Amino acid sequence: MGRWWAAFAALVGAVLLAVIGTTPPAPRAADAPRSAFSAGRAMADVRAIGRAPHPTGSVENARVRGYLIQRLGAMGLTVRASGTAMSQAAAERIATRTGAARVRPPVVNVVATLAGRDRTRPAVLLMAHYDSVFGSPGAADDAAGVATALETVRTVVADGRPARDLIVLLTDGEEAGLEGANAFFAGDPLAGRVGVIVNMEARGGGGRASMFETGSDNGAMMRLFQDAVPRPVGTSLSVYIYRHLPNSTDFTPAKRAGYAGFNFAFIGRAGLYHSPLATPARLDQGAVQDMGGQVLALTRALLAVAVLPGKAPDLSFFDAFGWVLLAYPAGFGWVLFGATALLFAAAAWRERAMRDVLRGAGATLALILLSGGLLYLVNLVSGADGPVNYYDRLAAIPRLQVQAGLLCAAALIAVWAGLAAGRRSVAGLAAGAALPMLLIGGVAQWVAPTVSGVILCPLLLAAIAAVARAFGGARAGAIVGIVAAAIGVGFLFALGFFLMQAVGPDMPFVAAVPLALVAALLWPLMPVVARRPALRVAGVLVLLAVGIALWVRLDPVAESVATFSLAR
Fold it and tell me: Are 164 and 123 in contact (CB under 8 A)?
């Protein structure tokens, strides 16, 4: 077995941590304590809202609206319906896509207020949309968000009168182009009283609920989030990515208007997005519990704080396997960069390993190019090069994730087979393998400092392991290396899982970045391997990936019946 035991132990630990970090909590039953969020109770609302498609202007949409008005009123809130005509642009878009007559149905928001003890304080706004696309019951998008808001309100009411007002905005016409949200923030009299927004969305039918978007200058708000929310999921990387994507939610017009806020969504089981199969029975109740637990804790904190946090410079943040949120000023990334560089330099100097440093750096560059090329080309085989239905690609994400994993493993093995022979210094090799990524992390720190942490933190773990090898010997180096790799690779597995869900169908080659970081952590634990057998293994993995790609191309739909979105 050589030293495979070290790499194997690190991988087992990494997989366990990644699974923990990406698995939603168990749903709480309907008889859970009244002070707790219960997915079991929320599901009663999901079933009532998501029993059938309910697009804007339909009879079913009106039934859902009546149900929501009754539910909010029964909990003691002051409720009103606020209607406006759908915009001409939205009506034309619907007519074009459905072939229906060009009409402008009313867009009717449900607006409710729970009065606080001090009504002069800025209010907290809970927001979700109650309309669905044509052809989908929308149990996840967005009956789950609406039900989360209702169960959160029930719990807040049970707590007693809050310190400030809680406003609930259940918008109509989100799927037609954010019609209800645009109307509210453009002219509703309550819009001026809003101090912070918590929005709930979905693109799929399950998985961890992530806080993926904030308002600008989020530093103080994120400190409150960090202190208040148990089992948090979120990363400033997603905030950065979403800022540059063309996607939009009801939070978009609010953010443009300068409102502070938080945007939650789950994106697992993507084949159910806008699908006729998106029924209450198929909704992952753990995802509802996850979203509700985070939203309730955050809402309670926002209602209770004496003064809502103001604008402060954005933080760099990420969750550690859904246990705790790590957050720091964006400028602290330079400290991480400098510490990592110094530790690697010390390890390389100790072993006089410049040759291995250069070989390691070259290997990482080769790995990025090889894995990126394979991911891009095999993705073309899977159908990304043709007029593929967007929803079919979403439904194929689980298979595309396996395809990407096989290709990443193949590239990692192939490059290692060429690198391992003739190495003299493990620590020098680790320093060299990390060098290109350290330079990329420095560029990220300069250009987008809130993003650099996902690169620099794993590299810091690799640097600590390299120093332990160089100064503590093989045994200490192996022990520290296993722990560092389990934590770092586990984090990168979870990050790669998120990236593939978010942008994998179109840009799977982004996985080359976390793969290069995995190499910096894992290669020092791997023994020398014979080149030919290793290349044969890599070739088999590539062939398996091509087979999956052909499966996706020839049979793109997996448990999904594609419909269409009117909002995107």
Answer: yes
